Amino acid sequence: MTKFWKQFLSGIVISNPLFVLALGLCPALAVSVTVVNGIGMSVATAFVLLGSAIVVSSIKKFVPDIVRIPIFIVVIASFVTIADLTLKAYIPTLADSLGIFLPLIVVNCIIMGRAEAFSSKHPVHLAIADALGASVGFAIAMIIISFLRELLGTGQLTLKIAPYLDLHLFTLPVLGENPMALFILPPGAFLLIGLLLALFRWRGWMKSE
Amino acid sequence: MKVKALSELYPILAVTVVVFISVALLGGLDSVTRDMIEYQKELKVQRMLNEIFPDMTSYTSEGDIYIISADGTEIGFAFLAVGKGYGGDIDILVGLEDETTLKGIAVIAHAETPGLGDKILAPDFTDRFVGVNIADVAVPDEGGKIDAITGSTISTKAVIDAVRTTAMEKVKELKD
Question: What is the pTM of this model?
Answer without folding.
Answer: 0.79
